[in-house]
Design a protein that fits this description.
Blueprint: E1 2-9, H1 13-21, E2 29-33, E3 46-47, H2 49-54, H3 59-65, E4 68-71, E5 73-78, E6 84-87, E7 94-97, H4 99-108, E8 113-116, E9 123-126, E10 129-132, E11 136-143, H5 150-156, E12 166-174, H6 177-182, E13 191-194, E14 200-207, E15 210-217, H7 223-236, E16 249-253, E17 264-265, E18 268-270, H8 286-303, H9 314-323, H10 334-347, H11 351-363
Parallel strand pairs: 1-2, 1-11, 2-8, 5-13, 11-18
Antiparallel strand pairs: 3-7, 4-7, 5-6, 9-10, 10-11, 12-15, 12-16, 13-14, 14-15, 17-18
Helix pairs in contact: 1-4, 1-8, 8-9
The chain binds flavin-adenine dinucleotide.
Flavin-adenine dinucleotide is lined by residues 9-15, 32-35, 41-46, 119-120, 144-146, 149-150, 168-170, 214, 216, 251, 253, 272-274, 278, 284-287, 289.
């Protein structure tokens, strides 16, 4: 029988950040993941400098063996309309990474026992502890297993209210220099293409010699149809090399504002996608995964071995303070939808709006506080 103080389920950015944040806590930490690393994760791989700062990542060290594409601007349009290009002088405003590399890199920095190829099958209470897979005993289980995390399922016990989610598909294509040069893209500028009904957006994100393309929507009906239309659009506009098979991979996750998930229970706490924390306007989930883990680490350290629901109660409070109040089920009515569509058509042509609202406020969160531990 194995034993640890804290068992982290999931070695994505949420799980590895928590283990990293607790590296000097003196706690005996074990991290398990059903995959073997380096593993891929369906994701565009866009991060902001906040992510690197929060995790104290030395960019030169990272770049030694991994792709990290500095981004100095974005090109944004309503699909089919003329794009607005915004350039930012100075430091990069974002970076493009590959998740197979990024997640592996983060995992290598932690000070914990790691069990790979270990899938959580059962979680049973034994006295004041949990027994996982009849193999590991622990006082605290962290659910960092993404949207379908088994710990999140256990806490929420099949919560039927959970209907709103983002569905997205992406593909990463490795290209030659000649192929990229022949395409009508700027290798340092990602492009975003908002869907006409504003329920999502497509992207093309060049990272070194890799092109990541994909599309995410709040509405899971006909996602593959939207993705097909989008890739045909990109091919027609010479944004993609023509001779690559476009086999997309999909995944789902939840936006913070609409997630009704409970995120703590006795001896259990959720971080990252397991808690449903992605930013509502952009769908960005890596930074919230990391930030939630930094907040969770401070609560776990203060708990001093008492992981009752009451003791962990400060975690949802900190989450709400940092991410704002959730607005469950605030659906648009027909009129606001029409107004939004009309406004979007006009506003997405305005350089001021695209820079200050879409980019600075919704995507880059330039005014938000930097979380550090
Ligand atoms: C198409 C798409 C594009 C996206 N693009 C971006 C982007 O560009 N930028 C951004 O910030 N966010 C993006 N996101 C969101 C982002 O990918 C997630 O928010 C982020 O990965 C959350 O990290 P996490 O650590 O919580 O979960 P994950 O990264 O999903 O990690 C969970 C880990 O848990 C493991 N696991 C799951 N179940 C079990 C189990 N039963 N037992 C053991 N281990 C288990 C998995 O193997 C996995 O390694 C995108 C999402 C999608 C679908």
């Amino acid at each position: 029988m194995n034993h640890c103080d804290v068992l982290i389920v999931g070695g994505g950015p949420a799980g590895s950040s928590l283990a990293w944040a607790l590296r000097n806590s003196g706690l005996d930490i074990m991290l398990v993941d059903r995959s073997y690393f380096p593993r891929n994760k369906v994701c565009a791989g866009w991060i902001t400098p906040k992510v690197l700062n929060a995790l104290q990542i030395d960019i030169n060290d990272y770049a030694r063996h991994n792709i990290i594409q500095p981004v100095h601007g974005f090109r944004i349009s309503l699909m089919g309309s003329e794009p607005v290009k915004i350039d930012y002088a100075g430091e990069p405003i974002s970076y493009g990474i590959r998740r197979c590399e990024f997640d592996h890199y983060l995992l290598q920095r932690i000070n914990a026992e790691i069990k790979q190829g270990f899938s959580i099958e059962s979680i049973r209470p034994v006295g004041k502890e949990w027994l996982v897979n009849n193999d590991i005993r622990t006082a605290l289980i962290i659910g960092a297993g993404g949207h379908f995390c088994p710990v999140a399922r256990q806490i929420n016990n099949g919560n039927k209210k959970e209907i709103e989610k983002i569905v997205a598909q992406e593909i990463e294509i490795e290209c030659t220099d000649a192929e990229l040069a022949a395409c009508d893209i700027d290798r340092t500028i990602p492009e975003l293409f908002f869907c006409e009904d504003l329920k999502g957006y497509g992207w093309i994100f060049p990272k070194g010699n890799v092109l990541n393309i994909g599309l995410g929507r709040e509405d899971n009906r006909q996602l593959s149809h939207h993705v097909k239309k989008f890739s045909e659009y990109l091919l027609r506009h010479n944004k993609l090399p023509k001779n690559h098979a476009l086999k997309f991979n999909g995944h789902a996750y939840q936006l913070y504002k609409q997630t009704p998930r409970h995120i703590i229970d006795d001896g259990m706490l959720l971080v990252g996608d397991a808690a449903g924390l992605a930013y509502s306007q952009s769908g960005e989930g890596i930074c919230p995964a990391i930030e939630s883990s930094l907040l969770a680490a401070s609560v776990i350290e203060q708990a001093q071995g008492n992981y009752s629901r009451e003791q962990l109660g400060s975690y949802p409070v900190l989450i709400e303070r940092h991410f704002g109040k959730r607005q469950l089920y605030s659906k648009d009515n027909v009129i606001t939808k029409q107004i939004k569509k009309y406004m979007a058509n006009k506003l997405l042509k305005s350089k001021w709006f695209v820079r200050h609202i879409v980019l600075d406020k919704w995507f880059l969160h330039t005014n938000s506080k930097l979380l550090k531990i």
